[in-house]
User: Fold this.
Amino acid sequence: MNFTSEELQQIALRGSDPKQVEEQFGRFTNGIPYARLARPATVGDGIIRIPQEATDYYLNLYEQQKESFTMQKFVPASGAASRMFKSLFELKDNPTPDEKQHQTGLKFLRNLPQFAFYEALHEVMRQHGQALSKSIAEEDYRTVIHYLLDEEGLGYGHKPKGALLFHRYEHGHPHTPIEEHLIEAAEYACNTDHHCRLHFTVSPQHQPLFEQIAAAVKEEYEETYQVKYDISYSIQDPATDTLAATMDNQPYRDASGKLLFRPGGHGALIHNLNQLDGDIIFIKNIDNVTTRDKLAPTITYKKILAAYLMETVSRCHRYLHQYEHSGGHNPALETAIMVFARDWLHIPIERTEDIPALLNRPIRICGMVPNQGAPGGGPFWVEDEHGHASLQIVESSQIDHNNTQQQAIADSATHFNPVDLVCNIRDYHGNKFDLTRFVDPQTGFIALKTDGDRQLKAMELPGLWNGAMAHWITLFIEVPYTTFNPAKTVFDLLNR
Assistant:
């Protein structure tokens, strides 16, 4: 790619591998293939529906087996909340709002008392000589939005979602998502030593704020839930950033002439996940939280997902140990393993010699909610280049929407991916897997971005729960929609 010596030094200082940079960059020219959807995963064909009469079995299994596993919770939380306030930013920056925008502003003002940040907003405006009640009466939403979003006020437009006041409580202070994740972890991710281990991925500038919020409530929650919190943080490794391209697929150089690298998306977090040391890892997005009084279904199904994983891990590891000690000379055992792989894991094994490679992999159990029109990824059977179908989470950006057959399959999906994963990351000898070995590098997507007034192409790495986990053993279990409580826009915070 004819990098200069200064550019090679720039790449090295980032911790990146020049060969990997060149390989990734080639995808701008060669393109990234779309996923080949075979059919949607549905109940009875890739999605497991736990019968009501079996829930007690799995809840009891969770209590019996949890002593054998160390558990940890992994929360991707590095994104800023700016997209959550997109409609308010547009309103604030538009001197002549249209009628639709005007109604958005009025809706925001009229519902202000319901938001958990109402009192904090009232106080910060008072400190600046402004009266929130006066602004509401005069329908002056521009002033209110300014003090909500900008640094002069609460600065919510630039803070991470985890630090925003999400939920109000009749008794006690409003809660941030950080606090709600601490409460959740105490209910289903606590180890037998009463330690709750949580790991947040954060932007470096936001870590002190996360630490401050956690420290303010840590002792109170430890006493309330009789636990001890072990909270750790990591940032997305700059070495996983990807080189941007010009519109004609040349390396993009900024105004100073330096190569421009951009964050590689949440798929880069597979490296952060790879550093964890637990047996069972719960993964859930920072904004998918609810209030304590509505938490029961989430706790129940987190335990069910974990128990199903524990049972799956135990069976896989037992079969692998038996196969290893048989020396590959036990036809009855091999047949039993192949039936188990087909009927339980949805993995066809055609040759007995493939048993170790296909069974000795990271395992994830993914909760799937019935599709109610939410945008995003879902569960599908996806064919590889050899025509073999496997269960995968597929994002909309991976689908060829111009292909009528592929679009029809996408439209027929019955379930949606809420990012509700429980994972095992150890092999049957107890050693940690190198999770980077199970990534499909031929996934990801290319997006158009800008650098000032210049357009560029940016590449996102295979997503954490799709391409980055493409070669894991994957099972889908239906979970109630009540366990899915994301806040994608500010108005999602109403009536929580």
